[in-house]
Amino acid sequence: MIKLHGFSSSNYYNVPKLALLEKGVDFEEIVSYTGVGPKYKPEYLDKSPLGKVPALETSEGFISESRAILEYIERAYPQHSLLPSSPFDIAKVQELSQFIELYFELVARRLVVNLLTGLKPDPTVVKEVEASLDKAAAALSKLSTFEQFAYGDQFTLADIAVILNLPIVRGVGKKFLGRDPLAEVPGLDAYCARMEERANVKKIRADAAADQAGFMAHLKTLYGL
């Protein structure tokens, strides 16, 4: 049985976790919090070179980085595919997924430490984040109408990207911008409400909530936060 190393508070970890759940693949979860150095587990570097989560343990060895893990999962377990059938549609799903990751998640992540710790952010960073998120939000409707799924008529990797990354954007926006930067994206709120009703999404949310205490305790021990 494959093993997924990481922790349920991490959206990066939850990307392959939700894929495995949606595909009906049996897997074991191994709790591993991030943090490299003498204060933590140096042996984890054998699983993930930079000590990041997730890492997937297979019979052939370890794979790190969510995108690479998703590629492995799709090829190793082709049932209930999370990609469309045509090359063009596959590319469009990957395009939307990457758009979400690059122009929303990575931008909002600049303020995630402040969100977790309560530390006041640099006003210049807040302005930069706001400008970038607004630009991406205005462009998002060109890639998806969110009428049924994020792309096409089936649940795909694009839905996983939206479901697991955009809540972080909303949280950062409400905390530091005083508003939801995604509020005006056509169809997005109704789409998100539908996705939250999926059984596997509910499990992801419940597991993340249950992990919060352990994750925060880890941060306090490792970094003194």
What does this structure look like?
The protein is α+β, with helices and mostly antiparallel strands. The chain has 8 helices and 4 strands; from the N terminus they run E-H-E-E-E-H-H-H-H-H-H-H. The chain has 2 domains: 2-81, Glutaredoxin (3-Layer(aba) Sandwich); 87-186, Glutathione S-transferase Yfyf (Class Pi), Chain A, domain 2. Helix content is 55%, strand content 8%. It has a 4-stranded mixed beta sheet, covered by helices on one side. The longest helix has 25 residues, at 199-223. The protein is globular.
What key attributes describe this structure?
single chain; alpha+beta; 225 residues; 2 domains; Glutaredoxin; 55% helix; 4 strands; Glutathione S-transferase Yfyf (Class Pi), Chain A, domain 2
CATH class descriptor name of the largest domain? Mainly Alpha
What fold name stands as the CATH topology of the largest domain?
Glutathione S-transferase Yfyf (Class Pi), Chain A, domain 2
Strand order in the sheet with the most strands:
2-1-3-4
Quantity of strands, as a count = 4
Helix % is: 55-70%
Number of helices: 8
Question: Which spans have pLDDT < 50 for at least 5 consecutive residues?
Answer: none
The gyration radius over C-alpha positions equals 18 Å
Shape: globular
N-C termini distance: 36 Å
Main sheet characteristics: 4 strands, mixed
H/E element sequence: EHEEEHHHHHHH
SS strand fraction = 5-15%
User: How many domains make up the 3D coordinates?
Assistant: 2
Structural class: alpha+beta
User: Could you say what the CATH architecture of the largest domain is?
Assistant: Up-down Bundle
Average pLDDT reading: 94
